[in-house]
Amino acid sequence: MLHGMGTNEATDTDTRPWIQVTRRVRTLHLSAGGSWTARHAATLDPQLQAIDVDGFSEAEIDGGEIDRLDSSGGWLLVRTKKRLEGSGLRVVLFRIAQRYAPLLAVIEAEHVVMPVEFEENGTLAALLERVGRGSHMVLLQAAGILGYLGHVTLEWFKTVYAPRGHLRVTALVHQIEEAGINALPIVGLLLFLIGIVLAYLGIDQLRRFGAENLTVNILGAGLLREVGVLITAIVIAGRSGSAFTAQIGTMKVNEELDAMQTIGLNVVDVLILPRVVGLVIALPFLTLYADVMGLIGGATMCYFDLGMTIPAFMRQLHQAVTVNTFMVGLIKAPVFAYIIGMVGCYEGMNVERNAGSVGKLTTRSVVESIFLVIVIDAGFAVLFSILGI
Predict the structure, then answer these.
(1) Which residue in 113, 132, 355, 369 has its CB near the most CB atoms, within 10 A?
(2) Over the stretch 273-316, which tens digit does the pLDDT of each residue have?
(3) Quick check: 126 and 120 in contact, CB under 8 A?
(4) SS3 category, 263
């Protein structure tokens, strides 16, 4: 049964495409020939969509007589194959000229099946479908990150056991400079301003009770325990975590990772460990610096608003906080750094070979890092409350 021909004029190098569908018992046999190119895609598309698949259990696609094929024609063939499989047919034959096999392989690998859309988006079924699909994606992402965490942790133990064979000192120092030293200006300015804001709010509220001096207590405990390390981690997640994803993702797009593996280099040793370890080393020092800058901002506000001198501020701070208060915030820093580095590198390794994927996964890595940092910070708060610290 002849379903149609191209309507465009044929030339010596561009023959008319054709599609022929025959029934062999319960097998749908689709033959194709001619030029399957972008020029004829608009004609072929409705013909392929109109193929009736009812009553068949198997399908055969024979494109052996296709003499010209480009990405548009290849996509039509792959989409037809996916549609037949989605309708419950088993595709037992998918034949194409050998010279077009690499093109078909790439198209099939990149082919994405669009999710089923409900006609009534406001129905309960549509809501449950969206919730289920989102939950499934979250579980897959969590499993992927957890598996990658185990892989990199194993490589880290190998590095600790034999640092000369795995640890690349030059790359490590470079990452400490990039993630730590170069972040000092933005972290310092931000925490200085946050210190001013916290001190202003404390003074404004406590003045009603005549307890303005207790602003130092609130400022010291809040900055050292929570605000300093949390804000620093969020800034680093947006600054360095996104950079990790973009750098590794761009290398994957440019096939540099494939080249490294081809010459026998361990990608984890060369790219992942220097970034993660460098961040783990840098973030505690950044947190200490952030705490100091936040306290300076708070002291500045107390001086201008309360007339509290720096020595008086330091005496009040010494009475308000202890070493435990300072250590609680500092203990969180390497954990946050490890999570940020892991998520940034994991998403970078998952980038597909296109520029759009780099931007999408860079955004995702920042969101995931900040979310996990806040969740883990809440977990630390519960743990320290139980321990009475």
Answers:
(1) 369
(2) 889 989 999 999 999 999 999 999 999 998 988 888 888 889 88
(3) yes
(4) coil
